[in-house]
Design brief:
By secondary structure, the chain is an alpha/beta fold. The protein is built from 16 helices and 23 strands. A seven-stranded mixed sheet has the order 1-8-7-6-9-10-22, with helices on both faces. Strands 14-16-17-12-11-19-20 form a seven-stranded mixed sheet, with helices on both faces. β7, α7 and β8 form a beta-alpha-beta unit. The chain starts with 9 loop residues before the first helix and ends in a 7-residue tail after the last strand.
């Protein structure tokens, strides 16, 4: 009999029972209850909660609440200093409930608790960062004709919506919600049906922090709820993080109402490793880049492009790292990697791996996994396929690393740019000039040099090509969640007669 080395905290269990009974503790959750869906712990394949689906009527109600709150000025016309105070209070509440939110996020996504703790700390950090932006948005005066005075001012966009994924549920929601609130917008959010629990808890904290009713609204459900949301004519802005296919569908729906859209979509990020690199550092970075969150990361460094002269040594070291991985439940202290989010996603990954084997690939299956009935998949390295193969070209969204060897810098760049994606990349080299040359030639929104996956609220993030458009985080959010208005006044004396 397998020893179950996990125990769900009692306060989490009590809260899950409460929300399953419809006790959300917040008027910000808009769901009818006519239909329900189940939320599962992917590390134990057991039910965590049973939640109501937001019907089309619920979607319309949420948008109406957001519009009413925006036009009333209860938040949009609140002084920036007061919005800053509320957001700082919200960040403090996240830190107050840090352990609860971390355990909830770990259970819902399957990621190890240590990773979930980093995510929740990021949530507080991003909120605090944008709290500081609330009173720092400004326009400018513009030189024009002598008889005119011209200036620009910025105001909130209006009613903003977000559809967010299951891999980093709360951080990715906060990338959108924090700047939207800082600049006076109202908001409607639809988290993934696979991991909505932290968002439900968080909107309760919004109310506790002093965000007025109607400013933040949360919808629950799957694809139909999201479709009803993005098809509405009542939105001013849609922000989406997820697959390229869904992003294209959202663009099509938004185009009918000329709704602004920003998209952060899929990736097939390369890790370029040159012979001059610090091998120990590069091995650790490549392992972290692909096996964090079981590879279920939009920027997962899923393609190793390595200089031929160090390939054998590098792979031997990387395999040793992978062999030490234990794949288990999120609350099992032994776990260095968690499960795949669902049986459906696991089937997609294993099907792709089966196809690769049939096409002659060599698969290195590494580490050990729990015997619990979770959706576990060990770290995997795939060799022996042409760079045109789908394993190199399409996002797998799992702990699967493909390997290509190169003999020149130009060859490395060409392979790096050979996919339809352009979200992120890593470059590992001991040559400063090479680092700059390669980073500038790679077609991606973010290129990390001698590190990987470094995020900070000050750093703009987004993609190129099929990885989307627009940027989140940093000062870029000012453009994303404010409207620029030009005001021109005739100041000639003739106007005063």
């Amino acid at each position: 009999m397998t020893e179950l080395r996990v125990a769900i905290p009692a306060d989490i269990t009590a809260w899950l029972n409460k929300v399953s009974a419809g006790g959300f503790g917040s008027v910000n959750v808009i769901a009818s209850g006519e239909q329900t869906f189940e939320v599962f712990d992917p590390g134990a394949a057991s039910r965590l909660a049973n939640l109501p689906v937001s019907s089309k009527t619920s979607v319309e109600q949420a948008i109406s609440r957001a519009r009413k709150s925006f036009e009333s000025g209860i938040w949009s016309k609140t002084s920036p200093d007061d919005r800053e105070k509320v957001l700082l209070a919200l960040a403090a509440l996240v830190e107050r409930d840090f352990d609860f939110l971390s355990n909830l996020e770990a259970l819902d996504t399957g990621k190890p608790l240590a990773e979930a703790m980093l995510d929740i700390q990021e949530v507080a950090t991003v909120i605090r960062y944008y709290a500081g932006w609330a009173n720092k948005v400004s326009g400018q005066t513009i030189a024009t004709a002598i008889n005119l005075s011209a200036m620009t001012v910025r105001g909130p966009v209006g009613v903003c919506a977000a559809i967010t994924p299951w891999n980093y549920p709360l951080p990715i929601l906060i990338y959108k919600l924090a700047p939207a609130l800082a600049f006076g917008n109202s908001f409607v959010a639809k988290p993934s049906e696979l991991a909505p629990l932290s968002a439900i808890y968080f909107v309760g904290l919004c109310a506790e922090a002093g965000v007025p009713d109607g400013v933040v609204n949360l919808l629950l459900g799957a694809g139909q709820t999201g479709s009803d949301l993005v098809s509405s004519s009542g939105l001013d802005k849609i922000a989406f993080t997820g697959s390229s296919r869904t992003g294209q569908a959202i663009m099509a729906a938004a185009s009918k109402n000329t709704t602004k859209v920003t998209l952060e979509l899929g990736g097939k990020s390369p890790q370029l490793v040159f012979a001059s690199c610090d091998i120990d550092k590069a091995v650790a970075g490549v392992a972290m880049g692909i096996w964090t969150n079981a590879g279920q990361v939009c920027v997962a460094g899923s393609r190793l492009i390595i200089e031929k002269s160090i390939k054998e040594e590098f792979l031997n070291r990387l395999i040793k790292v992978g062999e030490d991985y234990f794949v288990g439940h999120s609350l099992d202290a032994r776990s260095s990697m968690g499960p795949i989010i669902s049986a459906t996603q696991l089937d997609k990954i294993t099907s792709a791996l089966d196809g690769a084997k049939k096409d002659g690939a060599v698969l290195h299956l590494l580490g050990k996994s729990s015997e619990l009935p979770g959706h576990f998949l060990n770290p995997i390295i795939v060799e022996g396929l042409a760079t045109s193969h789908s394993m190199h070209q399409e996002e797998i969204f799992g702990p699967v690393l493909t390997v290509s060897s190169i003999e020149s810098e130009s060859e490395a760049i060409a392979i790096a740019n050979s996919t339809r994606y352009g979200l992120a990349a890593g470059v590992w080299t001991g040559k400063a000039g090479q680092a700059q040359r390669v980073a500038r030639e790679i077609d991606a929104g973010t290129v990390w040099v001698n590190t990987y996956g470094a995020f900070h609220p000050t750093l703009p993030f987004g993609g190129t090509k099929s990885s989307g458009f627009g940027r989140e985080l940093g000062e870029s959010a000012v453009d994303g969640y404010t409207e620029l208005k030009t005001i021109v006044e005739d100041i000639s004396k003739a106007e005063e007669n």
